[in-house]
Amino acid sequence: MTEYILIFDSGSGGKFVLNELKKVLPHENYIFFCDEKNCPYGNKKIKTLKSIVSKTLENLLKTNNIKLLIIACNTISSLFKDYLSLHFSNCPILFVEPELNEKILENKTLVIATSNTIKHSKIIHFYKGSPNLFLQGFGNLAIKIDKCNGDFGEIKSILTTQLSKFKNCKIKNVVLGCTHYNFIKKEIKEVLSNEIIFYENSKKIARKAKSTLKKMNRLN
Questions:
Q1: Is the pLDDT score of 209 beyond 80?
Q2: Theoretical Cys-Cys bridge with 137: which of 49, 92, 118, 131, CB 3.0 to 4.6 Å?
Q3: The CATH number fitting domain 104-199, selected from 1.10.10.10, 3.40.50.1860, 3.20.20.140, 3.40.640.10
Q4: What is the mean pLDDT of the chain?
């Protein structure tokens, strides 16, 4: 029976994770689940979101032969990492989370993510005391990115309104705390600076997926 790696996201942003996985693990079989019906996740009530995610994952794992589950949604990782690891303990799970560490925070760093990720990410809270850390949460930016068909005019306007206050902060790094935001790197640079360095952990997750499957002796 064919085994699959399942990539789960609220929208199209998880494609960036999928692309990195295919580079590192080209012989694996993939299922990419994009929850367009319930997107965006970033501003939903936690109880509602927990129910949606649990039921959806239960159905996906029941109906497919999944050997590795990757949560490509920072919001879900921030809110339910411990719960999902316990609830689906029979399936190895990797979580995409904001790429934040002491090395990055040696310079002025702006984390942009959904409101839920900003509020609940353990990684963000761990470094919250750093004088080099700046935070900006968005409510429904992800769904706007999914639905704009590549016309980022409205997105650019939102970014200008929300990020202009950081222009004089000498921001060097921008941590993309939502996979959707990979689509709008150009617009972010236009608002802040062309010298911005972006950080997100799709490549890291792909490498971790390979090492996880290797340890399990289940590499294709």
A1: yes
A2: 118
A3: 3.40.50.1860
A4: 93
For residues 206 and 194, give the distance between their C-alpha atoms in angstroms, rounded to a whole number. 27
- Identity of residue 123: I
Exposure b/e, 159-170, CB count within 10 A at least 16 = b? beeebeebeeee
The residue-averaged pLDDT of 74-86 equals 94
Q: Which residue matches tokens 């499957």?
A: 213
DSSP string, 16-58: HHHHHHHHH-TTS-EEEEE-TTT---TTS-HHHHHHHHHHHHH
E strand or H helix that includes residue 161: helix 153-163
Topology of domain 4-97+202-216, CATH: Rossmann fold (3.40.50)
- Which residue out of 39, 91, 169, 178 is catalytically annotated? 178
Per the listing, tokens 């019906």 go with 37
Residue 54 has a pLDDT of 94
The pLDDT value recorded for residue 35 is 82
Write down the pLDDT at residue 150: 76
* Nearest CA-CA partner of 95 in 194, 205, 177: 205
**Which of 34, 39, 73, 91 is labelled catalytic?**
73
**Is 178 known to be catalytic?**
yes
- Report in angstroms the alpha-carbon separations of 101 from 59, 97, 127, 133, 199: 35, 12, 8, 11, 11
Whether pTM exceeds 0.90: yes
Encoded tokens for 179: 């996979």
User: Alpha-carbon distance 177 to 162, whole Å?
Assistant: 16
The per-residue pLDDT for 42 is 63
Partners of 175 in beta bridges: 111, 199
